[in-house]
Design brief:
With 444 residues, the chain is α/β, with parallel strands linked by helices. 41% of the residues lie in helices and 16% in strands. Helix 7 packs parallel to helix 9, helix 8 runs antiparallel to helix 9 and helix 15 packs parallel to helix 17.
Length: 444
């Protein structure tokens, strides 16, 4: 079957500052919560740190060259707040601005559309010790940071994202395995409420800047849980809890419908987790957006009985769930029907990891990634044929990089990163993606 995409469809790849740049202590940059968290022994496999990562801070030209080689139309990257404002709210660091100025200019000179994320998980550590997202003052700190970016780069970057996957802030405060590594669900709920206010304030600010050629949105990942046995009350309840209380619902409801959902409101009330809010907060959060960025990796199947068995056996978090690429179709319909999202959508991330191994030849021969991506794109094509307005797709990631709490164990790149030489080597999937972009489609 042949899958053709509309003319002008934006094919891209995505990365994030903390995962590729390295150089955390150079040219005046301040530490971020991830720099600090990774130094705690045992947090990251093999005590991996983002200190070098892909060394992109020093290899900008090389990275632009592989973007050109791939033939992508757009590149999604993030700014490091602590490179721009080392302590988060004080002096601006000219070297930080200069680095992103070079990146953005190189992209534009090479005809690659910049897609910039203001915040991708790496809060300046100096702000964390003042309460971070738990302190309502973050709204002012974040808005000032966003304003510096918009004033410097607003005319040269057409696509702006306020936040990437805000769930990471929830996980980092409630579940401990992301920075800053806390285990306090009530605090996490407060952080999320403030983060949503930051988003709303940045969108309002963006409108005041009248950047006619730029658009703004947010990226929320959707790992939709489906009941293993539809109609089974235990499976249905588990899927609902996962979607509404600890998953995408906690963001999409306030962002697109206004307010927390009834399910989440009840859950927070019953467990004394309701964040402090002020009158008018939900109006501030629910701002009209130009697009919605969907990060899609998988659909998850909830089987309450099996979960209980797993819990008894001590659980096994290493089990990688099966890939349900076709679930993207249902997720896109859910966004339109349940959340009434009718603005354009970009698939801002999609990809699949390989476990690190000394067998480099096998890692380079990544047919599994090609099959997975083809499955996702087939589901996307089907949803678009139903009229769902998707404007672009970004593969995660350009190259293997620092995969947060999985360290360097999980390799998501179209390019293999040799962490001892820092060479980037194309995998089989890179050539496949280049052909797909050239043909604006693929056959399988
Ligand atoms: C989501 C995140 O945005 C990105 O930083 C991460 O590396 C990928 N998914 C893969 O886990």
């Amino acid at each position: 079957m042949n899958y053709q995409f509309p003319r002008g469809f934006l094919w891209g790849v995505a990365t994030a500052a903390a995962q590729i740049e390295g150089a955390p202590y150079e040219d005046g940059r301040g530490p971020s919560i991830w720099d600090v968290f990774c130094k705690i022994p045992g947090k990251i496999p093999n005590d991996g740190t983002p200190d070098i990562a892909c060394d992109s801070y020093h290899r900008l030209e090389e990275d632009i060259a592989i973007l050109k080689q791939l033939g992508v139309k757009s590149y999604r990257f993030s700014f490091s707040w602590s490179r721009i404002i080392p302590d988060g709210k004080g002096e601006v660091n000219p070297a930080g601005l200069a680095y992103y100025r070079r990146l953005i200019d190189l992209l534009n000179e090479n005809g690659i559309v910049p897609n910039a994320t203001i915040y991708h998980w790496d809060l300046p550590y100096a702000l964390q010790i003042q309460g971070g997202f738990g302190n309502r003052e973050i709204v002012g700190w974040y808005t000032r940071y966003a304003e510096i970016l918009l004033d410097n780069f607003g005319r040269d970057v057409p696509i702006w994202v306020t936040f990437n996957e805000p769930i990471a802030t929830y996980v980092g405060h409630a579940q401990g395995f992301f920075a800053p590594g806390l285990l306090d669900e009530k605090y996490a709920r407060q952080c999320i409420h403030h983060l949503l206010l930051c988003h709303g304030a940045a969108v309002k600010l963006f409108r005041r800047k009248h950047l006619e050629n730029a658009q703004i949105g947010i990226v929320v990942d959707v790992w939709k849980h489906f009941p293993a046995h539809s109609g089974d009350p235990a499976d249905e309840a588990l899927a609902e809890y996962n979607n509404e209380c600890t998953g995408y619902g906690m963001f999409l409801h306030p962002l697109f419908l206004g307010g927390y959902s009834d399910v989440l409101t009840r859950y927070m009330t019953e467990h004394d987790l309701t964040p402090k809010m002020e009158p008018g907060d939900f109006e501030k959060i629910c701002q009209p957006l130009d697009f919605y960025g969907l990060n899609f990796y998988n659909g998850l199947i909830d089987d309450a009985a099996a979960e209980q068995e797993k819990a008894k056996a001590g659980g096994n978090f290493q089990d990688r769930p099966e890939n349900h690429t076709e679930k993207l179709y249902e997720v896109l319909h859910m966004l339109a029907e349940d959340y009434r999202i009718s603005i354009p959508i970009y698939i801002t991330e999609n990809g699949v990891p390989q476990t690190d191994s000394p067998d480099v030849a096998a890692l380079l021969d990544d047919q599994e990634r090609i099959d997975y991506t083809a499955g996702v794109l087939a589901a996307l094509h089907r949803a678009m044929a139903d009229g769902i307005d998707v404007r672009g797709y970004y593969h995660w990631s350009l190259m293997d990089n620092f995969e947060w709490s999985a360290g360097f164990e999980a390799r998501y790149g179209l390019y293999y990163t040799d962490y001892s030489t820092l060479e980037r080597i194309p995998k089989k999937s890179a050539a496949w993606y280049t052909d797909l972009i050239r043909n604006n489609g693929f056959s399988n």
